[in-house]
Amino acid sequence: MSATYDIYRNLNKARREPTKHVWSLRTKVNGRPKVVGHSEDVILTDVTFKVSESTRQRVIANKRKSVCAFVRGTIVDDMTGVRLMVSPASCGAVRVSFNPYASGSFYVCETGQPITRADTVIFTVNGAYAINPS
Predict the structure, then answer these.
(1) Domain containing 114: what range?
(2) How confident is the model at residue 18, as a pLDDT?
(3) Which position among 13, 91, 98, 133 has the lowest Cβ density within 10 Å, counted as fewest Cβ atoms?
(4) Can you give the pTM of this predicted structure?
(5) Cα–Cα distance between 8 and 117 in angstroms, integer?
């Protein structure tokens, strides 16, 4: 798979199981963005973190969930139904997150440092982990 994908947390599935992250996979089909699947474990490379500020402002104003941020990159491995065999921490990855009410950018959880790029992002049921974020 060499196509570019947008990955974001599936908010509907998270509502049913708040401690479990399920990720939506979106790519262009016939020139239009389309969700083509869901996964609990995915790895992306050559990653950029994208936030739609206008959608984020609408989320804040209406206090309603909407997809206003996603991670874009190339899928290395879509491991639907298979758990990662190594922990992200063993790869030197740091946990990253996004909160539309707190900031207009993704950030490293441990330091609060805003990020826009990373070499690789590992998505698991426990969250998203970036390798070499900047």
Answers:
(1) 4-131
(2) 64
(3) 91
(4) 0.86
(5) 15
pLDDT exceeds cutoff 70 at 101: yes
The domain total for the chain is: 1
Report d(CA 10, CA 128) in Å as an integer.
Answer: 13
Structure tokens, 16: 């049913």
Cα–Cα distance, 96 to 128 (Å, whole number): 6
Least confident segment among 30-39, 64-73, 76-85: 76-85
